[in-house]
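Researcher: Please predict.
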Amino acid sequence: MKLDDVLAGYVPGSRGRDGLALAVLLAGQAHARLTVATVQPPARSTPGPARAEESAWRAYLREQAGATLAQARDLIAEHAGPASGEVEYLAHSHRGSGRGLVELARRRGADVVVIGSAPGGGRGRISVGSTADQLLHSSSVPVLLAPRGYGDGPPAAIDRLTVAYRRGPGCDAAVTDAARTAATLGVPLRLVTLVISSGRRARIEEEMLVRLRDQAAADLHAAARGRRSAGGSGGRPGGRPGGRPSGRPGGRPGGRPGGRPVEVEVLEGRNVAQALGTTSWLPGEMIICASSDTGPLRRVFLGDTSIKIVRASTCPVMILTREP
């Protein structure tokens, strides 16, 4: 996965500020170009007496776009983002904001689209609204979502990438992409897999759970070993410890992509949120999820588990496209 061109979708308000703060952080650490875009409804040409009203509507849209992008400039300056020459600001017309960003990303060859959480969700969590829903079911590039409130106190840097791993070719490709991205950003890589269990378990269910846990740990270590040459070289070594130091279900080094250890953890809980709560997360953590294997090729398409991870996560989540 490349990180040469970051596209941030911006709207006035807190969700625009959250997505922009994350986009600035990512673009700065990856030394990437940053494009900030606002998507507006199209102004259709209307013949006859209504043409004057149409002209006024077009002028209003231009004025609103200018004010929105000026606000984005001020926020980037506040976050001490890239120099003004490294950021491009533009307005794009489309009936759907998410589909407009998909179209814009394709036209400009963006490598990732970054947006904030929809309003109405809990602070520190990701809420999927119509814009994110359109992106998460049709984008031809990865989509990165910022939790609500991320822009109020963003971390100084991205500290670590955590891949939500499940056995399968789609997730193996995601690990390869994540290893390369970790090398680009100069951060450690961690692989976690989720084991969902019921509360009170019969002995036969307990035995099945142990086998599932063992298999998950074996899958993680195999994936880590397989990424030894995927990450490239460079970046800062090591990283702060983030998982439990125990063996099978805890955080233990696996392979060494790019010479840097890869942590592996099995997270167990009654549901996805509880499982994610059994490990520690760094201030600058980012989760990476693969698209569903049932989705279209080279498109983002969320599966059931991934959408639960998105909604339960307290840190940004990137959804990769499905690769062949």
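Model: Residues 227-250 have pLDDT under 50 and may be disordered.
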